[in-house]
Design goal:
single chain; alpha/beta; 2 domains; two-stranded parallel sheet; two-stranded parallel ribbon; about 20% strand
Amino acid sequence: MSILELAAAVTAFIAPYLPSLLKVGKFVGEKAAEQTIKMGTTKSLERAGELWNSIKAHLTEQTGLQDAARLVASEPGDNTYQKAFVKALVKLLENHPELSPKLIQAMGGGDSVQKVLADHNSWVEDVSQNLSGPGTQQVKATNDSVVIKVRQTRK
């Protein structure tokens, strides 16, 4: 995975959670932060928190990243703001290559999984799976299944 791909994946994952994550950083006092973390118990929020904790350790040296994070937090769905965050995150990852494996791990690891599943009166047709790096590709159909034109490639 390239630095740009990693930065884009992190941005897409973390953007919806940045408003909450940035508010945690603004609270004064440990109790307020603990309460906010307790409120968000989903696995996705936990992963977003891990990503953010890895990134925010470098915010003081990357002011562009801090500014971009605030913009994304103000409008998480704005593509222009997300692109600015990606660009700033790429710069951070170029300066701190040791951070990339931490971010990959926080998003669930480096192994990719591609699945196409169909069940009962199943039908799978004209599927392409292209995988780069480690991981698994799977096409599965059960019961009254038909599988036609499946291409799986690994780079």
